[in-house]
Design brief:
Radius of gyration: 36 Å
Helix content: 55-70%
Order of helices and strands: HHHHHHHHHHEEEHEEHEHHHHEHEEEHH
Bound molecules: adenosine-5'-triphosphate
Strand content: 5-15%
Largest sheet: 6 strands, mixed
Distance between the termini: 74 Å
Number of strands: 10
Shape: elongated
Amino acid sequence: MLKDLKLFLELLHPYRFRVRLALVIGGIAGLCTGAGITIGAEKLFGIVLNGSQGMPLGSVIAIASIFPILFLVIGICTFLSTYHLNHAGLSVIRDLRAQLFSHIQRLPLAFFQTKTTGDLIARLTADTQAMQYALTITGRDLAIAPLTFLGAVSMLAYKGCEHDGVIYIYCSIALLPLVIFPVRKLTQKLGQKARTQQEELATVTNDLSQNIGAAKEVRAFNLQDRENKRFALRLSELFSSQMKVVKYTFSLSPVVEIISSVGLASAFVIGYYKGVTGEVFIAIFAALYFSYAPIKRISYLAGELRKGSESLKRIREILAESIGIEEPTNPADIDNLRGEITFRKVSFAYGETPALSEVSTEIEPGCVCALVGPSGAGKSTFANLVPRFYDVDSGSIRLDGVDIREIDILTLREKMAIVTQDPVLFDDSIMENIRLGRESATDQEVVQAAKQAYANDFIEQQENGYETIVGERGIRLSGGQKQRIAMARAFLRNAPILILDEATSALDSESESMIQKALDQLVLGKTVLTIAHRFSSIKNASKILVFDSGRIIDEGGPKELYHRCPLYRNLYDQQTF
Ligand code: ATP
C-alpha cells in the first residue's frame, strides 16, 4: 500500500498546498471523531447512568450540546477536506489526460499499428476514471481515518492511566495486527484482477468502435448476428473479470469486521470481570470502535489504491512510448525551400517486411513526379517517408541537399501539402475543415481556395453554405466532395511540395477534369509527388518513377518509358485497352 500511496502522492505534488490543507482539516474531523465522540459519550452517559440531580440546567444543556457541536465541526471539516482533495485529485486527472492526449499526438504512425483504438480510448477514459476514484473518494479516508484512529487510541491510553483494570481491555487491540495479513494478500489479488478487468474493458471498447465504424459493412453482409454473438461473448468475459474485482474488493471489509468484533467482545468480557464503571466502559467501547473503523476504511483504501495504481501503470506504458522520431538539436533553416527531393540508397521495412530497398532518385524543384507500379510495390511508402511519417532504416532523404532529419519536424511538414486517398474531415463546418490547410487563413482566402478546387459551387448549394457541419469523418458529403475539400486545403496551404495520393480517384470524370485544370495551376513552381493508378491523371507528369517490389526499376518521361520499360508498358496497356 505504501508504494501505491507514494505513487499517488508524487502525482499530487503540484497541488501539495491544497492536499496539505485538506489533510489538516480532515485531521481535525478525525480527532473530533476518534477522541471527541469518546469523551462526549463518557460525559453524556455519566449523567444518564448516575443521575443528574443537583446539576445546574446550564451544565446539563452544555453537556447535551457536545454532540451537535462535535458533529457540526466534523461535518464542516469533512466537507472542506473532501472538497479540496477532490479539487486536487481532479486536477491531477485533468493534467494526466491532457499529457496522455498530447503524447499520443506526437507518437509515430508505427505506434498505431501496435495498439487498437479501443485500447487507447480505454486508457484515456476508463483508466483515468479508476485513478480519479482512487485519488478522490479514498483521499477523504486518507485524511480522516488515520487521525480518527490516533484520537481513539490516545483516548484508550488516557483511560488506561486514569482507571485501573482498563489496561486489560487494551489486550483486545492486540488483534489489530492480525488484520494486516489478509488485507495484504487480498489487495495483491485485487491488483491483478483490476488489470485484467481494464484490459477486458479495452477489448469491449475496441469492438464497439470497430462495429460502429463498419456500420455499412455490417448491414451489407448481414453480420448483425455474428456481431451480437461476438459482443455478448466480450461482455460476459468483462462481467466475469468485474465480478472477481467485486469479490476481492468486498471481502476485505468482512475480514476486518470479524476481527474487530472479536476485539470488542473480548473488551466486554474483560471489562465485566474487572468491574469497570458504565460510563468509562461506554467511552472505552466507543474508542475501541473508532480504532477499528478506520482500519476497515484504510484496508478498503488499500484496495482502491491498488486498482488505481494498476490503471496508472497502463497510462504510464503509453507515456513511456518513445516518440521515435528524433528532433535535431540545431535544426537547419529551410525558409526558402526550392523543393528538390533526393533519395540516397533508402531502405525501409515495416517490422520485418522490407517495403523499399536501396532506392535512389533525384526529383528536381518544380517537377511533377508520378509514382507508378503494381499494388504493394512501395509507392505510398516512398511518399510517406518524405514528411517523416516513418524514418528511413538506412540511406537518407534530402530536401535542397539538407537531410530531412536535420529539419524541425513541424517546419518540414509545413512545407508540404498532402491529399490522401481517403481524406478525413472533422465533424465541423466546411469553412473550418478547409482552414485546417492554414490556420491563419481568412474566410476570403478559404473561399478562394474552395473556388480553385472547384468546390465553391457545391458548398454554396449546401443548406448552410460554408457553415454546414459535415458530420463525423465527413459522412454527410460524397467521396468526390470530400476530396475537393481536401484539395482546397492543399490550395490554401500553398506549400512548395505537394503529395497527392490517388488524389483524383474519387472524382467523376467531369470533376476530375476540373481538378486536373486546377492542379495544373497549383503545381506551377512546386515539386509534386503523385501516386496515381489512373494513367490519364499523370499524362502531364514531367517524370515517372516505376516501382516494383520495393525498388525503382526505371524512371523517365512517359514516352521514353513506354518504349523502354516493359512493366510500365504493361500497366499502361492494361488501363488504356
Ligand atoms: P498500393 O498501390 O496498393 O497502394 P503501394 O505501391 O503504395 O501499393 P505500399 O503501400 O507502399 O505499396 O506497400 C509496400 C509494402 O509494404 C507492401 O508489401 C505492404 O504490404 C507493406 N505495407 C504497407 N503499409 C504497411 C504497414 N502499415 N504495415 C506493414 N506493412 C505495410
